[in-house]
Amino acid sequence: MSHIIESGKSDFVKVNVSNSHNDAVAFEVKFAKDLTVAQLKSKLEILTGGSAGTMKVQVFKGENCLATMDNNDAQLGYYVNCDGLRLHVIDSFATFSFDSAPVEKFELSMDQYDQRTDSVRSYLKQNRMGKYNEEERQQAEEKKRQQAEEILKRAELCVLGGRCEVAVPGNPTRRGTIRYNGQLEGKTGHFIGIEYDEPLGKNNGSFGGKAYFSCAPNYGGFVSPLSVTVGDFPPEEFNIDDEI
């Protein structure tokens, strides 16, 4: 059995919770680290509608499974000691089926489901979590709106033939000439095509088999307008002295 060891002094931990019946839905919850796994499962039973006696809880970081909480007497802090991880609930009882006898499917209308007080949706509403936190939702929408405006503003400055400097996290700052301004087929968003001064790019002006501009191999690249600063950037001189 593996467990997670991270540094942290808080008595509580914030995690995202998802379940096997709806992988697309995940919401943030704060739990005390001294909860036993059995106590945690009882709380997750309320959140996910699963059965505490049959559920399996896995710890994820991104898409990587770090551990399975297989000791009901262990404390949550033994497995999770930092914020931001995800607890994924697999309800083995709910997913079990009997081949010998057909089971009638029980369904609720949206109105009937909204009226229930023991559902995940009701819990989220009562605690103003996820999409039911109006303030967080408005803040997220405002952030997206501001980013969209900034992208449009920066894109308008990217005139074809203009000089620029490109700064992408994890890559060296590069200089080049703007060769394309628009969308890429098969990609969401707005992109600026750059012909770099040095072979520090990824293509020759093509993307997905379609040519948007032409340049030498590894001299071309497509980046977000937010990564482009337009200005009078002359080509840099690279002097390489022979070493003895």
TrEMBL record:
SMART domains tied to this protein: CAP_GLY (SM01052)
A Pfam cross-reference name: CAP_GLY
CDD domains the record matches: Ubl_TBCB
SUPFAM superfamilies: Cap-Gly domain, Ubiquitin-like
Residue span, CAP-Gly domain: 182-224
InterPro entries the UniProt entry points to: CAP-Gly_dom_sf, CAP-Gly_domain, TBCB_Ubl, Ubiquitin-like_dom, Ubiquitin-like_domsf
Listed GO CC annotations: cell cortex; cytosol; microtubule plus-end; nucleus
Coarse class of the protein's main subcellular location: cytoplasm
UniProt keyword list: Chaperone, Cytoplasm
Gene Ontology molecular function terms on file: alpha-tubulin binding; microtubule plus-end binding
UniProt record, GO biological process: cytoplasmic microtubule organization; post-chaperonin tubulin folding pathway; tubulin complex assembly
Location of this chain's protein in the cell: Cytoplasm
Similarity comment text for this entry: Belongs to the TBCB family.
Name of the protein in its database record: Tubulin-folding cofactor B
Lineage: Eukaryota, Metazoa, Ecdysozoa, Arthropoda, Hexapoda
Name of the gene encoding the protein in the UniProt record: Tbcb
